[in-house]
Amino acid sequence: MAADNRGPRKTLLWLTGGVIAAGLLAVVLQPIVLYAGLRDTPTWLVPVHVVMVAAASAAVVRVRVRSATAGTSWTDSAILLCIVSLPAGWVGPVVLAGVFLGKLLNRVRPYRALYNASKDALSATAGLLVALYIELPHAPAAAVTQPHRLILVALTITVVEFAVGVPVIALAAKTPWYRVHRDDLDIKAAFFAGKLVVTVMTLLLFADDAKMLALVPPAALCVHMLVAGRLRARSDRVAWQRLARSTEHLGGADLTTVLTAAAGDAVSLFAADQAEVVVRDGPRGPLLVRGDIHGVVWSGDASLAPPAMPGGLMVSAPMVGDDGQLGEVRLHYGDTVSLSDRELLTLRTFASAVRTAARNASALAVADETARDARTHDPLTGLANRAGLQEHGERVLAVPGLVALITIDLDRVRQVNESLGHGAGDQVLVEVARRLTRVAGPDVLVARLHGDVFAVLLTDIASPRDAADRAAALLASLEPPVELGGVPVRIEATAGLAERSAEASPVTPAAASLAMLELLRRADVAMRQAKRGGPRVVRYEPARDPADVDALILGGELPRAIAKREFTVCFQPVVDLRSGMMVAAEALARWRHPVRGELDPRWFLQAVERSGLLASFDEAVLEQALAAQARWRAAGIDAPVAVNAAPRSLLDPEYPQRVRRALDQQNAAGEDLVVELTESLTLADLDLADRTLAELQAAGVRLALDDFGTRSSPLAMVTRLPSIDLKIDRSFVEAMATSAESRAVVRSTVELGRSLGRAVVAEGVEREDQRRMLIEMGCPLGQGHLFARPMPIDELMLMISPGVDGVVGRLARPIE
Hints:
Blueprint: H1 2-33, H2 45-58, E1 60-65, E2 68-73, H3 75-85, H4 88-105, H5 110-133, H6 140-144, H7 147-173, H8 185-206, H9 216-249, H10 255-269, E3 274-282, E4 285-292, E5 295-301, E6 313-321, E7 324-333, H11 341-376, H12 386-397, E8 403-410, H13 413-420, H14 422-440, E9 445-450, E10 453-458, H15 464-476, E11 482-484, E12 487-489, E13 493-500, H16 509-531, E14 537-539, H17 548-563, E15 567-576, E16 582-593, E17 597-599, H18 601-611, H19 614-634, E18 641-645, H20 647-650, H21 655-665, E19 673-677, H22 683-698, E20 702-708, H23 714-720, E21 724-728, H24 730-735, H25 740-756, E22 760-763, H26 768-777, E23 781-783, H27 793-800
Parallel strand pairs: 13-14, 16-18, 18-19, 19-20, 20-21, 21-22, 22-23
Antiparallel strand pairs: 1-2, 3-4, 3-7, 4-5, 6-7, 8-10, 8-13, 9-10, 11-12, 15-16, 15-23, 16-17
Helix pairs in contact: 1-4, 1-5, 1-7, 2-3, 2-4, 3-4, 3-5, 3-7, 3-8, 4-5, 5-7, 8-9, 9-10, 9-11, 10-11, 12-16, 13-14, 14-15, 17-18, 19-21
């Protein structure tokens, strides 16, 4: 550090020495070159001006810039008075002597006093030369009559003083030159104007009587006190404003981020050369962040940090609260400075704010870790849950090698719950988790997927046979009975095994989610086959997949179908039940198979999802759906189009980008599209699809929950998905005339939608009496054969334009 400071200090000495040499040279040359009138000068005039300059230079308004000090004094006004009232050869010597004397009276060290005197002598020489060049009258009364020349000389003095002094202050303070006087530039400009007015008034008085110079100090003192007060008020106001802004920056959720922001803000807020923030109890021990004007210079273990800048001054403030001292904020200055009472109070306030932010960040980190643990772990057994297995599996599948997934189903847990109570059933699950974890090994992930189903993900296996042997060993560990209150209970189990071969290429992060879901599906297929009888461990075989051989054949034809645009879209309108007007339309995909004819999604959607062509299928449907929406929009019908999104689409991070591209191609807004979540979407899927859904909603796309009421935990779905529309499943609409339970489901869904501000659509409206019953229940929207069957876009356009009774978009007569 000392070596780092030696270079700037040497440069500073050369710079100040050069100013001193130039100033002394100017003072020596002035009497020699400008000797006219020197001998005729009254003996009292020079001492009076020396005293005047000394008094003016002693009245300084100081502004600290880091460890350096910048000041504004009356010296330039005194110089201007000297130029118009003294012989030219006396100006430099008088200014040099007066400033040197004034600085010594202010207890400035001799070298610094000589530097200031030389700097002002240079500015006086520059002003004198300009005055001679523009022929400013050398008489106070005459000079006042030419204010433009007087102002030009005054500006010259001030500009040269800034030009000479600012680089020195910037180098001493290690701060950019343009920041030295930036914050107080307006007040300095006003001070300059005030000094100029006082100078002109002095010249007017001095024109008749030189003894009137005695009035200069009182007048200057009044303006000086005014400016000093304004600067102090400004400094206090700006300091508190900066403190408020700094505390706003401390809202990071990460402790290191908070401390980094605090260190940077402290350097700026307190004009320090360096600032440190130390926390005694960081996540991994004492933590220190050190910064300067260039940014962070250290962040890490406080015991390993290099020493702070040597010499100068260190000021610290403890971060103290009710729970003791958390750490401290330290300020380092390269030279001895004096902090004001206001700065010390601001420092203590800042340290308290940093402590609060650091405590909040630590608490948030703990809360985030707890929330993440709760999201990825089963609270009963402590094992990973489905979300935890999914995350771990995605990382595993991104690495080449043989991977095996074993799913295990317990057979007698339900009987235990029914006979001995759920507490006994929980004991069984905890014991099973303990045995599986012990046999699987320390580096193997064991998960509880749901209820009585567990999973084990193996990566340290040599062959498929090895995976089968490990699965058998896991089942064998469950054979000994579990003691429940002295009662031995035997638990039977079956297992399914699915593998990713060692020859398979590792998947990309974008495809890892889908690959893990497919591996889990295959293990689940094998486990269900084991439950039907036969071996207790069943290995997945594609030929026995319940997606059946016919679906596999269709899957092989998918690339051709997409390439030849065999997938088309039909549209079924959504209608305002009272007015009969079309308010939306649902896009329903169809496959026009060259041999089998038109197929609806029940026949091919699963094959599409497993084929790897789901993205291309989604793009084809979106393109046709939004093109159709553009046609009825052009006809004057402002209604969105709805498309169904499979769970795997929502798990694909690229899906929102495909939606935005399709919207842009048709010049459509996000509000022109509704994405319907199908009935196969689960809460576990939502855990993984949150980001996709958030991006869709951020683009303005509306969401709808299809077949509401048929899935598990429908209310949990609604609370997880803000601003989502509800579509009542057709089974409830069909049965509501004869089933009180169905009517209750419809009515409660309508009330739920109204209370939450969600749109509610009744599906399967096929009769007029159903329409009227739904209106009586308050349901606003309906969809079904009563209004229109699914049809191609050309047929739909013929139906809605001109529409019923010649009204464009009306599909049924209104009901009053």
